[in-house]
Amino acid sequence: MSRRVGVEVSIALGDAVKMTNVDVVAAYPITPQTHIVEHLAELVADGELDAEYIPVESEHSAMSACMGSAAAGARTFTATAGQGLELMHECLYVASAMRLPVVMAVADRALSAPISVWGDHSDVMACRDTGWIQIFTENGQEVVDTALCAFRIAEDRDVLLPTMIHLDGFHLSHVIEPILMPEQSQVDAFLPKNQYPFALNAEKPVAMGDFAPPAIYTEMKWAQEVNLQNSKTTILKVWEEFAGIFGRKYHPVESYRCDDAKILLLTMGSYSETAMTAIDRMREKNKYENVGLLRLRLWRPFPVDELREAVKNADILIVLDRALSFGASGGPVCMEVKAALCNDSKKPRIVSFVGGLGGRDITVDDFEKIITRGINIARNGSAQGIEMFGVRE
User: Fold this and answer.
1) If you count Cβ atoms within 10 Å of the first and of the last residue's Cβ in the chain, which end, N or C, has fewer?
2) CA 16, CA 38: separation in Å to the nearest integer?
């Protein structure tokens, strides 16, 4: 039986990682993810977690240590945020290309300059093409559940890819919520021991990730792409098995009040729950036609088929990004959505909004304004690239 506790989400995430019987945690503190690895360090120091905790000198070193640990066959975890994610950026490509099943939590944070420790999705979008599986969460329960699923997915022999768990900095990482924490026996039944098939062996030394000439580089990158795309099959299987044990089912694209909706809003992360309230209020007011909400959970591999199915009956799709793609024709998520739907003859009219940068709140009233303005733009044919929400004149 699961037990309900009221706990800070970062602490709950640390407890979930402990329950996976992780072998190595290598991390460097950076706001707003520090509570995650501080808690894990305390668990190791107090003898509650039998793991090696490596306090490194930077995030680049953290990922380097994680790669060595994973290559040796150890279950490995780290966490970071914002500028820290960017400092380890070059290592992210190496971990995915060498198929090292590291699991990393990212308490998503705005990037400098100016300096901001508050949350948005700038850091996510800067690392979207690094070859990692990436999953978004909306609340503390989803953070805990996704941590358990992430190890199962990453370590599956058909996958063997590093996996990021995205939780919004401060808006999610530092809030206290009621969370159902599983029993250790449940986790053990769901998550088998890590048996990395290519673990380093000192008696049989090999070279990993070394030099590749042009004659083979393209083929290696294509194999990596095929593997990442194929990982969705395992992700769906793991979510199905998780639901069988814990009773909570996750999907690549999740909908809220969309069955009869011709107008859809698409969001990612913790702001989605605020958007649900706005959807409820607009329906109560009978304002415009019925509106619904899509929440994008699986960021990589991008769920093209599921998105097409979700929007097939919609006339208007309003996409909210929490990051800018400077000089582009829309927010980064919106551009992905447009690309996924470009060949659909009946695709909805798509409007790109960017808001919530640097941790700025988007309230229920704000979401109503975004939806209302998005409808007017779509119907008047006046969409011009990005609609920047909340800019003060």
Assistant:
1) C
2) 14
Residue 367 φ/ψ, nearest 5 degrees = -65, -35
In angstroms, the CA 160 to CA 152 distance is 10
pLDDT of residue 210: 86
Task: Supply the pLDDT for residue 344.
Answer: 85
CB atoms within 10 A of CB 361: 11
Q: String of b and e for 269-298 (b: at least 16 CB within 10 Å)? A: bbbbbbbbebbeebbeeeebebbbbbbbbb
Q: Residue 65: phi, psi to the nearest 5?
A: -65, -40
- For strand 316-321 and strand 176-181, is the pairing parallel, antiparallel, or unpaired? unpaired
**Which overall architecture, per CATH, does domain 253-388 show?**
3-Layer(aba) Sandwich (3.40)
C-alpha 20: how far from its chain's center?
19
Domains 3-246 and 253-388 share a fold: yes
> Strand ranges (DSSP E) for 196-310?
253-256, 263-267, 291-296, 298-300
- Domains of the chain by residue range: 3-246, 253-388
pLDDT score recorded for residue 208: 85
Spatial contact of 386 and 354, defined as CB atoms under 8 Å apart = yes
State the DSSP code for 296.
E
Question: May I ask the CATH architecture of the domain 3-246?
Answer: 3-Layer(aba) Sandwich (3.40)
Token reading at 246: 């814990």
The 3-state DSSP composition of the chain as helix, strand, coil percent (nearest 5) reads 40, 20, 40
> Do residues 105 and 123 make contact, with C-beta atoms less than 8 angstroms apart?
no
Instruction: Report d(CA 46, CA 125) in Å as an integer.
Output: 37
Determine the Cα–Cα distance for residues 241 and 131; give it in Å rounded to an integer. 25
Q: Under 8 Å CB-to-CB from 344, ≥6 apart: which residues?
A: 308, 312
Rounded to 5 degrees, φ, ψ at 380 are -90, -5
Q: Which residues of the chain have pLDDT under 50?
A: none
Q: Which of 130, 136, 137, 147 is nearest to 36 (CA)?
A: 147
What pTM did the predictor assign? Answer: 0.97
Distance in angstroms (rounded) separating the CA atoms of residues 336 and 314: 18
